[in-house]
Specification:
The protein is 35% helix and 24% strand. The chain has eleven helices and 16 strands. The relative contact order is 0.11. It binds guanosine-5'-diphosphate (GDP) and magnesium ion (MG). The site of magnesium ion (MG) has 5 residues, from α3.
């Protein structure tokens, strides 16, 4: 560690001690908020100073229609899983730490090309940079969906992972509260809209703790003080995730365990066996659904040609499909013929605003 990191770590210790010594009551509430803002800032500085020492970490090129990261402790079966869901041969082993770099693979499902990353195993305190955990997490953040791969006989791993991610200010399956902030040159802090549930004074203290002394802020949703600090310091990350409980072949109670974990953490979970190939298609479907994507098919002429697939976000319209196909085409688009789940009959004539569904076949009709 550098001297800089050392002194920051020392400062963090002092702040945390002060924080734990201060009893919570109405009078100290605001002071505690400020301490939290400071602690958050110092943690950020520590991470930044470490980053300088270790470089930027992994860089993996994103390809395909969406990206999924397999995240979990060592030996939970991540490499075994990517080998059965994607076109990859990732090394597997009975001992920990086989995978030392990110192994990408492509999972093809319903004509969508989904990029899957097999990550090196996370270990506890990954957020402090142990075991390269921070780098792994920073790569996972760039994914559209996290699949937590947990050993079904060790579900406490899930709680540990959540703790790690919380420490890194990664929010799982949570909606980001809508907050607007405009920094000003003068005038102090003004709270314009406050639906946060926090006292206005507390919000002001948090802002000043983060060095924002002149600003207009509006908060349109419920938010805790910790989350507010995290959002305002630009660190809060919101990600979707599901859980694959692997090695179900070793657990007679897999059904109950899955239901319990899913209920307790309000997250979709599925028991699988990467080795025996159980529930693999079901997991693929769960991934696909949680990515919020759909596949539609484009045809050059009605009745002719083989349609070619295009992946869109669910809820996309004919106009969105046209835009993705070719930005120019939207201006010239007159209507489209649609066959499939969103159409009432084959080759139904629809407008640009028509909402598409999985499996639709579309023919664009241009104006002359
Ligand atoms: N019984 C059983 N063992 C598995 C399963 N999946 C993986 N393993 C074993 O668990 C060990 C670790 O697997 P690996 O894929 O290397 O885990 P990783 O470290 O998370 O990539 C290997 O010995 C695998 O054969 C499974 O579904 N059932
Ligand atoms: Mg591995």
């Amino acid at each position: 560690m550098t001297d800089k990191t050392d002194s920051l770590t020392e400062k963090l210790g002092e702040l945390q001690e002060e924080y734990s010594k201060t009893k919570y009551n109405k009078a100290t509430n605001i002071y505690l908020g400020m301490l939290r803002a400071k602690i958050s800032q110092v943690k950020k500085d520590i991470i930044a100073s470490k980053k300088k020492q270790h470089g930027e970490g992994f860089f993996v090129k994103k390809t395909g229609d969406a990206t999924v990261a397999l995240v979990g402790f060592p030996s939970t079966g991540k490499s075994s899983l990517i080998n059965v869901i994607a076109n990859t041969r990732s090394k597997t082993a009975q001992y920990a730490f086989t995978t030392t770099s990110i192994v990408p693979g492509t999972m093809i499902y319903k004509d969508a090309h989904i990029q899957v990353f097999d990550m090196p195993g996370l270990i506890e305190d990954a957020h402090l940079g142990k075991g390269g955990g921070r780098m792994v997490i920073s790569a996972a953040k760039s994914a559209d969906l996290i699949v937590f791969v947990i050993d079904i006989n060790q579900t406490q791993q899930f709680d540990k992972l959540m703790k790690e991610l919380n420490a890194l200010e990664i929010n799982i399956n949570k909606k980001k509260p809508y907050i607007q902030i405009n920094e000003q040159n003068t005038g102090g802090v003004r709270v314009e809209v406050n639906k946060s549930g926090l006292p206005e004074e507390g919000i002001k203290e948090i802002l000043s703790g983060l060095g924002m002394h002149n600003a207009i802020i509006s908060i349109w949703g419920k938010v805790s003080d910790d989350e507010l600090i995290s959002i305002l310091s630009g660190k809060a990350i919101y990600m979707r995730a599901i859980v694959a409980l692997n090695k179900m072949d070793q657990s007679p109670n897999y059904k109950r365990i899955t239901e319990e974990l899913s209920k307790r953490h309000n997250i979709e979970a599925i028991p699988i066996s990467a080795i025996e190939g159980t529930n693999i298609d079901e997991l693929k479907e769960m991934i696909y659904q949680n990515l919020g994507i759909m596949t539609v098919y484009l045809k050059a002429r009605v009745g002719k040609d083989r349609p070619f697939p295009m992946v869109l976000g669910r809820g996309a319209t004919v106009g969105d499909a046209a835009k993705k196909f070719h930005t120019q085409i939207v201006d010239e688009l007159k209507c489209a013929f649609v066959t499939g789940p969103s159409a009432r009959f084959a080759n139904q004539r629809v407008g640009i605003e028509h909402v598409l569904q999985e499996g639709d076949i579309i023919t664009f009709i241009k104006t002359k």
